[in-house]
Design a protein that fits this description.
Length: about 150
C-alpha cells in the first residue's frame, strides 16, 4: 500500500472551481427568486418574465466560464485558453442573438430584463470569487508515483 495520491483524484484547484460553480449556481437561484418577486410586484407578469430571462442569460454567461475551465483542467494551458476564447465568443454571439430575438417581443419588462442581467452577472461572479478565495489549495501538487 502506498501513500501516493490516486491518479484520478481531484486537483485542489479544480475542487475550488467546482465549489465556485456550486456557490454561483446557488446565488443565481436565490437572485432569480428575489428578482422575480421584486419585479413581479413592480411590473406584474411582464416584470416576472423580464427577471427570469435576465437571470437565466446573465447567470449562465458567467457560470459557463468556470464550467469550461473545469472541463479543460487536464489539458494544456494552450488548449484551455483556446477553448475559453472560443466559448466566450459563442456565449457573446448567443447573448446577442437572444437579446435580438427578444427585442420585438413585449411579454417581458425590458427594464427588469436589463437590470437583472447586470445584477446576475455581478452576483454570480462575486460568489464564484468568494468561493475561490476561501478554498485552500497548495501551491504545488505531488506527482503520482510509478
Amino acid at each position: 500500500m502506498t501513500d501516493a495520491p490516486d491518479q484520478h483524484s481531484e486537483s485542489a484547484h479544480t475542487a475550488g472551481l467546482r465549489r465556485a460553480v456550486t456557490l454561483g449556481a446557488g446565488a443565481l437561484a436565490v437572485l432569480m427568486i428575489l428578482s422575480a418577486l421584486l419585479w413581479w410586484a413592480l411590473d406584474g407578469t411582464s416584470g416576472l418574465w423580464g427577471a427570469l430571462l435576465g437571470a437565466a442569460i446573465g447567470g449562465t454567461f458567467v457560470l459557463l466560464t468556470a464550467i469550461v475551465v473545469i472541463a479543460t483542467a487536464r489539458t494544456s494551458p494552450q488548449v484551455t485558453g483556446a477553448v475559453l476564447l472560443g466559448t466566450w465568443l459563442l456565449k457573446l454571439i448567443a447573448a446577442i442573438v437572444a437579446v435580438a430575438a427578444l427585442k420585438p417581443l413585449d411579454f417581458y419588462s425590458r427594464r427588469a430584463f436589463a437590470l437583472t442581467i447586470v445584477v446576475a452577472m455581478v452576483v454570480v461572479l462575486a460568489s464564484e470569487t468568494i468561493a475561490i478565495l476561501r478554498t485552500r489549495a497548495p501551491y504545488v501538487e505531488p506527482l503520482a508515483g510509478p
